[in-house]
Specification:
Strand content: under 5%
Protein name: Solute carrier family 35 member F5
Number of strands: 0
Structural class: mainly alpha
Pfam family, one: SLC35F
Oligomer: single chain
Organism: Rhynchospora breviuscula
Largest sheet: none
Radius of gyration: 29 Å
Distance between the termini: 51 Å
Membrane topology: Multi-pass membrane protein
Helix content: over 70%
GO molecular function: transmembrane transporter activity
Number of helices: 19
């Protein structure tokens, strides 16, 4: 008897340990899921995207410069690379087709399973209860449509049944942003014909300056004196780099540095407008305005780019200013490779980074390119001028000040977010106390 009792105690103890381990694993999984859903993780992921984009843009700048030096028009490079965005359209449509198909199968399976469970639970009751269970299963579908569809008259016709933006709505946003994006790319590529990659990179980084100013007026970004001083520091660095390029005679690769610097600054301003429009016109999923697909937006951007600027390309071809037959296979390969890596991939990551962080912080990632470009230029025999380093340092200091997290990633924000989350949980718990079981039945089945 004692041995039997001891065995039972050991079995109970082992079961308790197993249960404790299961609870511990479940708690760890919940904490991990909570972290990945938190603002801190979104911010970290956005910074990872920014670093990846910076590396891609540096490599793409050297590719563009080599192709332009070989005689290819910057306009043609811009047109081909931007048109490659169109590959996102079939990708999005195919993925949504499979997503909708899987959702329908799961919904059908859950409805069937829910009906069977309702019938089994009410098997000992009379026909009245069976009729109530059947009615409950039948009313699930219209309730699901109300939940998945638009919330009110404001969103009617703008969202599909899954609260995703319709194609028409996304196309309207893309057609608005398309010109700013194309000319930002064109002036950037054209500037590489006249100035060095280092100068182009440093001055392109001033897009953060323009973005801050635009966001200040149109997005309501918080103003601080530190950021104002940082803006002035960026302007001083820009002027220093421009003066260094205008006085430099050593870099043969920079045929007209001042013109190249002006084109780069123009490109930076257009970039600022472009990303501000993205942040304003494409809401974050957490804002509750529906799911706006970044890939679908870029796909329409490429489509409109292809259609709007095709007449210009044809004129250049038939006027023998930029005929297609002059392109070599090596040039075509470099252009397409640059378009897929730099435009299709990096711009998708950058657009996601804008939503995960802020417009100003996203453009601040450009500063990472400055030291990389200077090192590569030095290795290739085009060492930057001493004033370029001084200007780059001023720009970097300015960006550090611009991106001091006043309310984006500060502790205050996370404390407020935690308080809001706690209040939300209390409201949900309070709501569950007064909620009837029949009110939760449709969601339990689905």
């Amino acid at each position: 008897m004692e041995s039997t009792s001891t065995s039972n105690e050991r079995a109970d103890s082992g079961q308790e340990n197993i249960d404790a381990n299961i609870n511990k694993e479940g708690h760890c999984w919940k904490e991990l899921k909570k972290f990945f859903d938190s603002d801190k993780w979104r911010w970290t992921l956005g910074l990872i995207y920014i670093v990846a984009v910076a590396g891609i843009w540096i490599a793409a700048s050297y590719i563009v410069q080599s192709v332009v030096d070989s005689g290819v028009s910057p306009f043609l490079i811009t047109y081909i690379c931007n048109s490659l965005f169109v590959i996102y359209i079939p990708i999005v449509e195919i993925s949504r087709y499979f997503e909708d198909s899987i959702t329908k199968l799961l919904l059908s399976f859950n409805e069937q399973k829910g009906c069977e469970m309702s019938v089994q639970d009410s098997a000992d009751l009379e026909s009245v209860n069976l009729l109530q269970a059947t009615d409950s299963c039948r009313v699930q579908e219209p309730k699901g449509e109300v939940i998945e569809g638009a919330d009110g008259g404001e969103d009617k016709g703008l969202l599909d049944s899954k609260r995703r933006w319709t194609r028409t709505r996304m196309a309207k946003v893309s057609i608005l942003i398309c010109p700013f994006w194309f000319f930002a790319q064109l002036t950037f590529n054209l500037s590489l014909k006249y100035t060095t990659v280092t100068s182009n990179t440093i001055l392109s980084s001033t897009s953060s300056l323009f973005t801050f100013l635009v966001a200040l007026f149109f997005l309501g970004e918080k103003f601080t004196w530190i950021k104002l001083g940082s803006v002035l520091m960026c302007m001083a660095g820009t002027i220093i780099v421009s003066l260094a390029d205008s006085n430099s005679k050593s870099n043969a690769i920079a045929t007209n540095p001042l013109l190249g610097d002006i084109l780069t600054l123009l490109s930076a301003g257009l970039y600022a407008i472009y990303i501000t429009l993205i942040r304003k016109k494409l809401p974050d999923d957490k804002e509750g305005k529906g799911e706006a697909s970044t890939a679908q937006f870029l796909g329409f951007l490429g489509l409109f780019n292809m259609l709007f600027f095709l007449p210009v390309v044809l004129v250049l071809h038939f006027a023998r200013i930029e005929p297609f037959h002059r392109l070599t296979w090596q040039q075509v390969s470099l252009i397409i490779g640059k378009g897929l890596l730099d435009n299709v991939l990096s711009d998708y990551l950058w657009a996601k980074a804008i939503h995960l962080t802020t417009t100003t912080v996203a453009t601040a990632g450009l500063t990472i390119q400055v030291p990389i470009a200077a090192v590569v230029d030095s290795i290739t025999g085009h060492a930057p001028h001493l004033l370029d380093y001084v200007g780059a340092a001023a720009v970097l200091v300015g960006f550090a000040g611009i991106n001091i997290p006043s309310d984006s990633c500060s502790g205050v924000k996370y404390e407020e977010s935690a308080e809001e989350e706690l209040e939300g949980q209390e409201i949900v718990m309070a709501g569950e106390d007064v909620q009837r079981p029949t009110d939760r039945q449709p969601s339990d089945v689905s």
